[in-house]
Amino acid sequence: MADQAYAYQFRVSLHDTDAAGVLFFAHLFRHAHDAYEAWMGELGFALDEMIRDGGLALPLVHAEADFKRPLRHGDLIRVEVRVDELRASSFGVGYRFLTDDGILAAIARTVHVAVRPGDSASRVLPDDLAATLRSRLDSSAQRRPAETQT
Amino acid sequence: MADQAYAYQFRVSLHDTDAAGVLFFAHLFRHAHDAYEAWMGELGFALDEMIRDGGLALPLVHAEADFKRPLRHGDLIRVEVRVDELRASSFGVGYRFLTDDGILAAIARTVHVAVRPGDSASRVLPDDLAATLRSRLDSSAQRRPAETQT
Amino acid sequence: MADQAYAYQFRVSLHDTDAAGVLFFAHLFRHAHDAYEAWMGELGFALDEMIRDGGLALPLVHAEADFKRPLRHGDLIRVEVRVDELRASSFGVGYRFLTDDGILAAIARTVHVAVRPGDSASRVLPDDLAATLRSRLDSSAQRRPAETQT
Amino acid sequence: MADQAYAYQFRVSLHDTDAAGVLFFAHLFRHAHDAYEAWMGELGFALDEMIRDGGLALPLVHAEADFKRPLRHGDLIRVEVRVDELRASSFGVGYRFLTDDGILAAIARTVHVAVRPGDSASRVLPDDLAATLRSRLDSSAQRRPAETQT
Questions:
Q1: Is C74 left (phi over 0), alpha (psi -120 to 50) or beta?
Q2: Which pairing describes strands A90-98 and A6-11: parallel, antiparallel, or unpaired?
Q3: Do the Cβ atoms of A30 and D51 come within 8 Å?
């Protein structure tokens, strides 16, 4: 079965680093979100249009990352993006950060819940988005995809 | 005559620095804006309320900075904020960044123009804001304060 | 028994927010790290001196956060910082983000491992740092503090 | 005569924007520096190698920007980078930010001075860098390029 990963690339900028000489950890999440934005746009769900339309928002309720190797200034990083969980009102996205020579430098994960903007209650994912995410669901993901509540 | 400067303080964080070991220049503007926000709140014009009210916006049309000494991780920085120009629809704010031992490390300047949100045309500054800024106008500012057009 | 939490405060700035109107999630980690830096300085282990001395580094190997309520522009946030895990070569720090009216808006956690700068292998925590962290260890932390390997 | 501009592109991310719905001004400088880094790498003077080598640093001594049109979430921005001034120890770089439909949304400028790392005194630009910058010097630049002091 085909790998469902979307590939995104970025180069570690000077402003990504800190006085310790390597990427400041919080900036990994910024890059993860850039990869998520690019991927959602590719899937037909551009975040800027979603925010302007005002019918659906997908705020993050969880984020996490593990840092295995330092990311250095100038490094060209490949980010693989995968759906790793799909529920009625939320979904999880996994990110793998690989250096130029294929070494896994970091992994990250974000969980997004569907809400109506200005409303704190969750809603079910729209059918078209749920179908698209389901078709991209990574069947090898460690997390058991469960299409149940929340 | 009393000095009209407002004083704001911050410490240079690890994430403010880059691999060259000193504050990354663009972050000076972030700190300048934090000082501007704190000062506007003190003057009774909190930006968050202004944005939520939706009647007035004060977008930046110009920003500049001169860097004289490196700002280092851990440095405690005092920012002096002054009105240095007042016009019918806009105003200029000057910032001086001083290290703990009183050395001038950087200066910055921002110019803000009054607009109605969602409208690109400028409007005159509201009377109360103009009066407040006038009372804080730095008479020693090099820039000739002119209460004329734009 | 006394609560071992250290309290840090910040106000949600305009640049912390995004077009969706609330704090952009990655900036929570920046604020968590600011709280961590202030706390370490208070404990006598200022990060800037540590980086300049070059004998010990405490890079992050893990970071995570749960977002419960949106943090809005202008909100005054209290961050409680606690040691929630202590091992031979690493420690965990927990953060609780509370709004002005005491509502828990977010929690975060970072794990730091002791290394010699420029060396990828971990080392044991220096005695004075380990003792200080032990004295602050949150005995009610859900995570079982274990003073064992790594 | 051929235009000496280097072209760089970026898309305005969610985290570039603020609660006012448009790019937060300080982030324009971050993107300008990303364009500068990409351009310097293309010219054969990759900043990451320069910082690691430790023989030459090119810190910013001045930065400025004028904001003409709001940059919105999702906008694809083309940045044109040009040398607009060349002196014995410093050079100026101009940036034009154009939207997808060719509208000039912002301009920026940075001035870099050559120093030996850890030394506050300026030094002359290395011959190869000076020659490369001279070949890219924008003859139509408003600023009179003067190959004189500082």
A1: left
A2: unpaired
A3: no
How many A×D Cβ pairs under 8 Å?
45
Q: How far is D72 from chain B (nearest CA, A)?
A: 12
D104 or D118, which is more confident? D104
Which tens digit of pLDDT belongs to each residue from D39-61? 999 999 999 999 999 889 999 99
pLDDT of residue B83: 97
Q: What is the mean pLDDT of chain D?
A: 91
Higher pLDDT: A145 or D98? It is D98
Instruction: Provide φ and ψ at D54, rounded to 5°.
Output: 80, 10
- In SS3 terms, chain A reads as CCCCCEEEEEECCHHHECCCCEECHHHHHHHHHHHHHHHHHHCCCCHHHHHHHCCCECCEEEEEEEECCCCECCCEEEEEEEEEEECCCEEEEEEEEECCCCCEEEEEEEEEECECCCCCCECCCCHHHHHHHHHHECCCCCCCCCCCCC
For A102: left if phi > 0, alpha if psi spans -120 to 50, otherwise beta; the answer is left
Structure tokens at B84: 């240095």
Convert A18-29 into a string of H (helix), E (strand) and C (coil).
Answer: CCCCEECHHHHH
Cβ contacts of C89 within 8 Å, gap of 6 or more: C113, C114, C122, C123, C124, C125, C149, C150
Residue with tokens 């759906």: A83
User: Tokens representing C8?
Assistant: 């840090």
Q: How far is CA C67 from CA A54, A87, A120, C24, C52, in A?
A: 21, 18, 12, 11, 34
Angle formed by the axes of helices D25-42 and B25-42, to 10°? 180
Any idea what the Cα angle at residue C145 is, between residues C140 and C150, rounded to 5°? 155
Residue A146 has pLDDT above 50, yes or no: no
Q: Are the C-beta atoms of C111 and C27 separated by less than 8 Å?
A: no
Return the pLDDT at A21.
Answer: 87
Residue A102 CB neighbours (<10 A) = 7
pLDDT in tens, A51-60: 989 889 999 9
Residues 6+ away with beta carbon under 8 Å from A2: none
Buried b (16+ CB within 10 A) or exposed e, C9-23: ebbbbbbbbbbbbbb
Phi, psi of A132 (to 5 degrees): -65, -45
Cα separation, B130 vs B16, in Å, equals 34
Proportion of chain A above pLDDT 90, given as a percent: 81
* Domains defined along chain B, listed by start: 6-140 (3.10.129.10)
Mind listing the pLDDT tens digit for each residue in C7-66? 999 999 999 999 988 999 999 999 999 999 999 999 999 999 999 898 899 999 999 999
* C-alpha distance from A1 to closest chain C C-alpha (Å): 32
Enter the tokens of residue A58: 């997908």
Per CB distance under 8 Å, which residues of A are interface residues toward C?
19-20, 22, 24-27, 29-30, 33, 48, 51, 57, 59-70, 110, 117, 120
Q: How many whole angstroms separate alpha carbon B27 and alpha carbon C53?
A: 25
